[in-house]
Write a structure and sequence with these properties.
The protein has 82 residues and is mainly α. The protein has helices spanning 4-17, 29-36, 40-53, 59-62, 71-75; strands spanning 22-23, 80-81.
């Protein structure tokens, strides 16, 4: 048991140290923007590409999206789920 302040501190620590993963085949543009530090245009391009070409299977599939900086995926690769 703990206080509300202790719970908040623990939650903040866990969120910072172990960020939640994001499924790039289910996430909408807003979720991609927030979780992966993408611009709204980049996130929209990812969703559009997915809608036209099917699910992503690897990080290399994400890097095929035109208008998206592939290095952003490398930086967040531990957060990605396919």
């Amino acid at each position: 048991q703990g206080t509300d302040e202790e719970f908040t501190a623990t939650l903040d620590y866990l969120t910072a140290s172990f960020p939640p993963k994001i499924n790039v085949n289910r996430a909408n543009a807003a979720q991609l923007t927030s979780a992966l530090a993408l611009t709204p245009a980049e996130a929209a391009a990812i969703v559009s590409y997915r809608d036209k070409n099917g699910s992503y299977k690897t990080i290399d599939d994400l890097k095929k999206v035109s208008g998206v900086d592939g290095s952003k995926f490398d930086a967040k690769k531990d957060l990605l789920q396919f």
